Amino acid sequence: MSTTTNSTHAPLFEVCLDSVASAIIAEKTGGKRIELCAGLMEGGITPSAGLIKTVKTKTSLPIMVMIRPRGGDFCYDDDEFDAMLEDIKLCHTLKVEGVVFGVLLPDGSVDKVRTARLVEAAKPMLVTFHRAFDMVKDPFEALEDIISIGNIQRILTSGCERSAYEGLDTLVQLSNRAQGRIIILPGAGISERNVNKIVEAMGAKEVHVGAGGTKESSMEFRNPYCSMGYAVSAPEYALKVTSASKLGGMIQRF
């Protein structure tokens, strides 16, 4: 039995990526928006100005830039928060379409004061509240807090689980409670095997995917005694890049 959905209801595919090569692949394969990050092994941090500018030059897709000064939690000190404000200023200069951020309080609730400051600084760019949402103590309270701030177009979430498929029940509840006031953007672990189920269950008009793959490094000489990362890190000569076959396989199911 076919699992292909009527193409008139095909969702917009936002592709999370961290390189120019991946951005080009995403556009050629049918992605419609980019979430641009660095440090995907840390869940995404703010990319460099050079990467942002080059991706804008090489593709025509709208770019949502991750504003996250470090990996780890989403409770930031004053210096980290100032860095986030400066990165938003840079995004204005580079004329990107939107920014992606999330700030929490130590008690696991949304930091409404600081989030509102970031939203104000971002105007008129689009804003996504990212997967900091998945670390809140009460997702339904957080939903209302984020909506109350205003000028935030979407929440990227896995339903507070490791993957969107595992969190599907919560995603459906969030979407129903949002009642069109904000977009619930499902993300994390979405693949060709589950994308139809997630989209159909939520009635999702947008999905956030990684479609990660690797390509072989062009390096011929390879030093076996030295590595640039921690002990648990990506292989030195296997470069992360968006997989056209994975992304295309998901898009073609609609």
From TrEMBL:
Native source species: Linnemannia elongata AG-77
GO molecular function, one term: copper ion binding
Name under which the protein is recorded: Copper homeostasis protein cutC homolog
Pfam families documented for this protein: CutC
InterPro entries with a match to the protein in the record: CutC-like, CutC-like_dom_sf
HAMAP family (alphabetical): CutC
Origin superkingdom: Eukaryota
Recorded family membership: Belongs to the CutC family.
